[in-house]
Amino acid sequence: MERGSGAAAGPAQGEEGEEGEESEGCAGLWELPVERCERRPECSRCSRPQKVCLCPFLPIHPLKISTCLYIIQHPAEESRVLRTVPLLAACLPPEKCKILVGRRFSEDRYPELATVCRNPGTLILYPGAEATNLEEITVMSSSPPVMIIIDGTWSQAKDIFYKNSLFRFPRQVR
After folding, report:
1. Tens-place pLDDT, residues 72-82
2. Has residue 150 been placed in a domain?
3. 28, part of any domain
4. What is the total count of domains within the chain?
5. In 11, 49, 133, 149, which residue has its Cα 20 to 30 A from 56's Cα atom?
6. What is the pLDDT of residues 53-62, one digit of tens each?
C-alpha cells in the first residue's frame, strides 16, 4: 500500500513543481517584442505584389463589352494567390464589372442585385440539370445582357448558390 500511496503522492508533487517551472519559463516569452509583418507593396490596378504585377500584359484601355458582369466572390477567394477577379476587373470598365464579396446576399442588403436577379434577361453561370449551354442562348433583349458569376471552389460556389434564393431567378447557363 505504501508503494501505491507513494506513487500517487509523488507525481502530484512533481507535476506541481514542473508546472510552476514551466509557467515561469513561458512568462518571459510574452514579453518579447512582436515583429510587425509588412505586406509587400501592391499594384493599385491588378492588386498583385509589384514584383509580379501583370499590368504590362493587360489592355491599356478597358475592353468595350456590352455584357455587365456581377462577380459573386466567396470571402476566401479574396486572399488566394492567383486572384483572377482583380485582373478581370482591371480589363473591364468599372460599370461593367461589379464585385460583391460574401456568402449571403439578401434583397434587403443588396437591392441592386435583387433587381438584377429578377430581370428576365439575367443569366447565372452555374452548372446543373436546368442549365442551358451558353452557346445556345440568343440574347434578344434591348438592354445589355447581365451575367452573374460565382467565384469560389466548387463547394464554395455550391454553398453560395443554394443558400441564396435570389440566384434561382436568373436563367442558369453552363
Report:
1. 999 999 888 77
2. yes
3. no
4. 1
5. 149
6. 999 999 999 9
